């Protein structure tokens, strides 16, 4: 790997001259973070196509930075060793623009146009065409920004569009469907575990009828503009047009590409309606009226404060801790009695932004808190019931450090992975304690549940050490979980359209994927189906798969471990360390949708977010009390016959046990009490079935309490105890 990096660094300064490009068209491998107006595309002077610095003697000096992209893949079979890419990046006669034909500085270039929708699938497959394709899996419908390939090349789900090798004039074409103002192009290379393929320069053409074409030209020379393209397969690179063009069709014509490879690309097109470009001159936070721009941390806090001021009687803002960079993890609590746990009222939560570049969940939670406030004030009966029957906690950003990185890069330029990790380079969804392994080992040894419990497994010793690799964000969430008796949760992610449920980790060690259900598989499948069945995008029968798997054939739900193994996931930890049942919702093919897509994404998810919360009423609920004092018993165990996973009561003795409809034998037990078993029926009617228990202390417990209170033991009881001790001896 290091040899490859050194080789890349060695030939990088020669890339520009090999293309014959003028000085201000040379592709620089250094790609600094860009400062961006919220929701807009960076101006060309901060573009990824950077100008090389001038030295004192007038020569060009380039700076090289190599970015290593971590891929979420597991390679299971050996293949041929990859040959090192050679520095020459041409596979056809070179097109050499003169310095006079270079792109002008972009004081007139349009920067505010949103993406046309290749990445988000708003542009259908039928509107993508190409001169040729190597295979169906490398067809034009795969030429979408950030699309991910499967593990195998040559299947139906390769990672980009690739022209045939013998195609001497390749092109990739997008039909906007109507006259559109095109302002820019973003490209990547092919996503592949096995291949290196990317385009290094291209031209752009336009048409209104797909027969007559004209090209994008330089202002000064009138020659066709040749745009510098990619230097690696994953980093998105933006080129703004010298002048926006109004047309229906746009074509990208690769001119040069990596030697030994083929012209392959993934793309997004920046385009505005011809009636006028999208205005960015609006306030970010107040009102959040469409188009709803992404909010930075301080702005999200301001928005939460506004919601609290509008609905002070049903909201409370609190922080559960800080990120590695010191940013607070703010939570919005919504209930008719905020700040206190009411007996018999379940606690539910939504968590978003665990991966900082997956921004849609964050925006949806900010919109959800506004919606709940507004509808409560309007007297909406559904919302009123939600807020009076449960306590809702919304954490919009678990990884604010990663979000800040992604935000400044921009929705279309952040790529697939930048901002995913926290500032310690920790993936928070792999950072929770692995409680699966000790549980499964104890089960194999026959120790569960008599010696090792099947619930509330303790943290491993290594995980509690001061030098353990545990992110501060993870520690904060674990403390939050322990402090509040959560019953139901969803973890909002992005990059796919599917709901995954535990277990997330495969039971077979080192297996890349394997069906690994929990004892509550029926409940988790129910919860997942409820969200997927209420999500408009997941229910669209005409939509195509996001990347390399079609989850619609299974109802848009999947067992997490059967998708890909995730040791240390928050879902598994919630299930094994607390009473909380949690699923992961992958909200959109696009991890960081553009702001103009947020209104539709809200409509896609609004009903699903509400319906999922309502599932906390499914199952049984009640209070376990002491017969003598009638006080609730904390930490009593609720066991359901046939389900090898128990839950416990909260400090007031109340509990909630999610179950699908059916008849269940339920046992309540607590230390120092006789156990009680009763039948509890769960129906399809709304509301949990009340299943209360009254426990009686054992004689031994009564004696302990008498002795602890300083009481004398009655003579007859003392004699009985002495006889028992004698028999025991």
UniProtKB/TrEMBL annotation:
Cellular location(s): Secreted
Segments forming domain F5/8 type C: 111-272
Domain Peptidase M14: start-end pairs: 290-616
| Region forming the signal peptide | 1-20
One GO biological-process annotation of the entry reads: proteolysis
The UniProt entry, under InterPro entries, shows: CarboxyPept-like_regulatory, CARBOXYPEPT_ZN_1, CARBOXYPEPT_ZN_2, FA58C, Galactose-bd-like_sf, Peptidase_M14, Peptidase_M14_domain
* Keywords of the record: Carboxypeptidase, Disulfide bond, Glycoprotein, Hydrolase, Metal-binding, Metalloprotease, Protease, Secreted, Signal, Zinc
What are this entry's molecular-function GO terms?
Answer: metallocarboxypeptidase activity; zinc ion binding
Q: Which residues form a coiled coil?
A: none
Q: Name one GO cellular component term.
A: extracellular space
Function per UniProt: May be involved in cell-cell interactions. No carboxypeptidase activity was found yet.
* UniProt protein name: Probable carboxypeptidase X1
Q: Which organism is it from?
A: Rhinopithecus roxellana (Golden snub-nosed monkey)
